[in-house]
Amino acid sequence: MNPDVIGWLASIVLLATLIRQVVTMARDPEAKGVSRWLFIGQCVASVGFVAYSAMVGNKVFVATNVAILITAIVGQCIVARRKSRHARA
User: C-alpha angle with apex 84: 81 to 86, nearest 5 degrees?
Assistant: First the structure.
């Protein structure tokens, strides 16, 4: 089996779980228990992994880590909006 196929399948599973988590957080009106540091750490790590993956020429990891970075940014935006709405209420 082509190693890239295994990588892409693993990437799909990981991204599906992350997207599901973001959706769960989006449904929580108060966004309780969600740490801003989780997203900051995820973003910093993802940027590092994107750079590393590009340097070693691994397209699977570049794409996966870019997608993970996007989920972190979207998640942070959702949580910030929820916390802001809850604070105003």
Answer: 110
